[in-house]
Design a protein that fits this description.
By secondary structure, the chain is an alpha+beta fold. The chain folds into two domains: about 1-60, no CATH class; about 70-150, no CATH class. About 20% of the residues lie in helices and about 20% in strands. The strands form two sheets. It has a three-stranded antiparallel sheet with strand order 1-2-3. A two-stranded antiparallel ribbon has the order 4-5. Strand 1 (about 75-85) and strand 2 (about 85-95) form a beta hairpin. The longest helix is centred in the C-terminal third of the chain and has 13 residues, at about 135-150. The radius of gyration is 28 Å and the shape is rod-shaped.
């Protein structure tokens, strides 16, 4: 909403928020959509808000967290339990680092990133490897977990 040429306190409050009772002093240093600001000190009046709109910054949503890691540095008690389509399958317990960073706990089965082709591996912001979603290996991992956990 753009405040019209004869602004009122209620229009300023509707556009820029604020508390009741309304006081112009709470609207110091308000950023407008054109990049300018309301006065930070000195006199402030309704005229400072004439034909102005609130600055709306765009903050994109954060990226989704990386998929659960297959990095052996996040695993304890790693044991080979078989093979699937020529890939070694392991069972492990998530270690304290995996629990602290990702909230992963308990036992899991899957692959080790150190044994997979690098084209299927991504690195998360912490430097740990994971199997990229949408790859042949990520689909095989789903099959492994569906058949070997029964």
């Amino acid at each position: 909403m753009t405040i019209n040429s004869s602004p009122s306190l209620s229009q300023v409050q509707a556009e820029f928020g604020g508390s009741n009772p309304i006081s112009l002093s709470e609207y110091r240093n308000v950023r407008f959509s054109n990049g300018s600001y309301s006065p930070g000190s000195g006199a402030i009046s309704l005229n400072n808000f004439r034909n102005k709109t609130k600055y709306a910054s765009y903050n994109p949503p954060p990226p989704p967290p990386p998929p659960p890691s297959s990095d052996p540095r996040l695993k304890d008690t790693i044991n080979k339990i078989g093979t699937y389509n020529g890939l070694n399958v392991y069972e492990w317990v998530w270690n304290e680092i995996a629990t602290t960073i990702y909230g992963l706990r308990g036992r899991e089965i899957g692959f080790l990133t150190t044994e997979l082709d690098p084209e299927y591996i991504g690195k998360d912001p912490h430097g740990y490897g994971y199997i990229k979603n949408g790859t042949v290996i990520s689909e095989v991992l789903k099959e492994v977990r569906a058949t070997m956990t029964k």
